[in-house]
UniProtKB/TrEMBL annotation:
Belongs to the anti-sigma-factor antagonist family. GO terms for molecular function: anti-sigma factor antagonist activity. It comes from Streptomyces mexicanus. Pfam families: STAS (PF01740). Residues 11-120 form the STAS domain. This is Anti-sigma factor antagonist. InterPro entries: Anti-sigma_ant, STAS_dom, STAS_dom_sf.
Length: 134
């Protein structure tokens, strides 16, 4: 059952669970105006005991460097809790943000939340983060 964890006029963050993963669906731009809403939503979920996340970006038309920085900050918090993070639906435009930020090899990318949650989380999900940055 999906529930809304944060909503503003510009962005909505909802979540669901599947196969040990907390799927965080973001709907709206992740930028200088909205990044804090996403960060606070994930911090809240971490506080509630969630550790293994799929960040679903399928409904995100735009991601800027502030949004990328927020994903990095979220990743650090998840890693500190020995959790995992997977990212879904990066458009070509969004993938360029990860490439230009030097983080395209640091994350596991999937085409859909269903694909990302097929395998249950492992204990070493972020063991090598930030990964081999090229």
């Amino acid at each position: 059952m999906r529930w809304t964890i944060a909503r503003t006029d510009q962005i909505a963050v909802s979540c669901d669970t599947a196969n040990g993963w907390t799927v965080v669906e973001v709907d709206g731009d992740v930028d200088v105006h909205t990044h804090a809403t996403l960060r606070q939503a994930v911090i809240r979920l971490l506080g509630e005991g969630h550790r293994n996340f799929v960040l679903d970006l399928c409904f995100v038309p735009f991601l800027d460097s502030m949004g990328l920085g927020t994903i990095v900050a979220i990743t650090k918090r998840i890693k500190a809790r020995e959790g995992s993070l997977r990212i879904t639906c990066p458009s070509a435009r969004m993938a360029r943000v990860f490439v230009h930020g030097g983080l395209s090899n640091a994350y596991e990318f999937y085409d859909s939340p269903q694909e990302a949650t097929e395998q249950a989380p492992t204990v070493d999900g972020l063991a090598y983060w930030p990964g081999p940055i090229r």
